[in-house]
Amino acid sequence: MRAFEKLEPRDVFYYFEEICMIPHGSGNLQQISDYLVSFAEEHHLAHCRDEYGNVIMVKEASEGYEDHAPVMLQGHMDMVAVKKPDCDIDMKTEGLRIQVDGDRVYAEGTSLGGDDGIAVAYGLALMAGNYKHPKIELVITAEEETGMDGARGIDLSGCQSRKLINLDSEEEGVFLAGCAGGARVNYNALLTPVMQKGTVYRVTVDGLLGGHSGAEIDKERGNAICILGRAMKELEEAGLSIALCNIDGGLADNAIPRQAEAVFLVTGYKGNGEEKDNLEKVVEKLEEGLATEYRKKDPGVRLQTEILDTEERMALSEEDSRRLVNLICMLPYGVQAMSSSMKGLVETSLNPGVISLKQGQLHVGISVRSSVDSAKQGLFDRLSALAQLAGVEMEITGNYPGFAYKEDSPLCSKMSEVYENMYGRRPEVMAIHAGLELGFFAGKIKGLDCISMGPDMKNIHTTEEELSVSSVKRVWKYLLQLLEEM
Q1: 217 Cβ partners below 8 Å, 6+ apart?
Q2: Domains 10-180+402-485 and 184-400 equal at CATH topology level
Q3: Active site (annotated) includes residue 144
Q4: What whole-number distance in Å separates Cα of residue 244 and Cα of residue 206?
Q5: Mean per-residue pLDDT for 464-474?
Q6: Cα–Cα distance between 470 and 222 in angstroms, integer?
Q7: CA 335 to CA 447: how far, in whole Å?
Q8: Confidence of residue 218 (pLDDT cuts 50, 70, 90)
Q9: 10-180+402-485: CATH number
Q10: Is 168 noted as a catalytic residue in this protein?
Q11: What CA–CA distance (Å, rounded) separates 478 from 77?
């Protein structure tokens, strides 16, 4: 028996379960892309797949709708594939262990990929079913979560639609009519470790809530990488001679990191006595301070230290270690500016999401977001100045445009009218401080009218991600009614 067999709408959850059984984390999309092409062929739909892995399929208008304007539906096929430390699933080769708990759908030990598997499931159910609708152009993009490369490269010149419904938002009854632009800033450096003698320690930051670096950035949750930088700086300030061996933290630049650790030598030091007490006292004092600092925002924060051994080990010089600790400690994080035109909307932010130091190879990945191009450029300048001070290389990748809010959107007006007729209340129309592919689509199709919507999801990009069954059903009912009236 399939896990979702008894869930309604049956067709939507059938395809969502199919998607969950196919590994489709970003960078690992061949199987899901092949599945979509096979689906189109099986249902005799006009379709194409491009060099980026994007898939477009077309369903002609149902009877009586031949003279209605076509509509584009859009979502992305990749998910942020993260798992708990004790989870034994290989997310590159295995499907998810999906579970149902009342109104809640989740995956055991991993992220669920409701973002954006549910959009794909809606699209496939619509293309396979017998419903009233105008011509549908279903566009399923690749690599959204790692820079929107599919949307960046897709050729939409053959598409006829001038109305786009994006199904990549996570709150029912909220229509997104604007989004931030952004980019990924990468710091890289090749440093030279040398053999050194000392006591090997590990400092770990964990217990944090994490979350989406756009949607949750205003909650001011702890960033494990930044907290680790503070811990290492305070150890240095306490007089310890630190030589860094390895650093590892975060999983994706667009996820607020929940865990980070550093392995390092304290040189000329035996791991006991006064100096050991000093190290532990510094860590304990900082943990106490963090507990107060984050008592409402991130109450589970933990800072732990562990002595590994006393030995010779390859580690960075004290000078390079100090420079790197200073860099991590100085990394800007969080909200930089709020919007002056829309109350409560974050305008500009950034998130150090990934850090790695292995065998002298350093990498730091930072997500930058802003709805104002000049503010985004200002952050690039600031990060460039920091890179020069730290002696690391900086590269900007995945630069994507925002989508400006339109007060006179005919699509938004129609969607709001249908919603109010069905539910007796107006939807909330807003802009968000997260990246959507709408910016690229609007730039490729002149006059395109875009709105994003979706069912209720929680904790996307984390192992606590969940999807509401009842919300999926309501949004499906609404989508069908909307298409019938367009």
Answers
A1: 256, 334, 335, 346, 349, 351, 369, 433
A2: no
A3: yes
A4: 19
A5: 98
A6: 32
A7: 32
A8: very high
A9: 3.40.630.10
A10: no
A11: 22
What is 448-469 written as a DSSP string? Answer: -EEEE----EESTTSTT-EEEH
Q: Would you tell me how many other CB atoms lie within 10 Å of the CB of residue 373?
A: 11
Secondary structure letter of residue 61 according to DSSP:
P
Confidence band, pLDDT 50/70/90 cuts, at residue 401: confident
- Please state, as a whole number, how many other Cβ atoms lie within 10 Å of the Cβ of residue 160: 13
Identify the helix (H) or strand (E) that includes residue 422.
helix 410-423
C-beta of residue 254 within 8 angstroms of C-beta of residue 210: no
Is the CB of residue 160 less than 8 Å from the CB of residue 135?
Answer: yes
Q: How far apart are the first and last CA of the chain?
A: 38
**Cα–Cα dist 383/400, whole Å:** 18
Contact 166, 451 (CB under 8 A): yes
Concatenating the DSSP letter of every residue in 20-40 gives: HTS--BTT--HHHHHHHHHHH
Extents of the domains making up the chain: 10-180+402-485, 184-400
- Region of residue 391 (left: phi > 0; alpha: psi -120 to 50; beta: else): left
Element (H, E) at 151: helix 149-153
Identify the pLDDT of residue 273: 60
Burial class of residue 158 (count of CB atoms within 10 Å of its CB; 0-12, 13-18, 19+): exposed
Residue-wise pLDDT tens digits, 322-377: 999 999 999 999 999 998 877 888 999 999 999 999 999 999 999 999 988 899 99
Catalytic residue among 18, 78, 115, 216: 78
Evaluate if residue 272 carries a pLDDT over 60.
no
Task: State how far the alpha carbon of 104 is from the alpha carbons of 50, 113, 297, 316, in Å.
Answer: 35, 14, 25, 47
Alpha-carbon distance values, 9 to 101, 115, 126, 166, 339 (Å): 16, 18, 11, 20, 39
What's the pTM? 0.71
Give the pLDDT of residue 366.
Answer: 97
Separation in Å, CA 100 to CA 4, 105, 137, 426? 8, 5, 32, 31
**For residue 269, what pLDDT band results from cuts at 50, 70 and 90?**
low
- Residue 453 neighbours by CB under 8 Å, 6+ apart: 165, 166, 167, 169, 174, 175, 176, 415, 475
Distance CA 284, CA 302 (A): 10
State the catalytic residue, choosing from 115, 137, 143, 144. 144
The highest-level CATH class for domain 184-400 is alpha beta
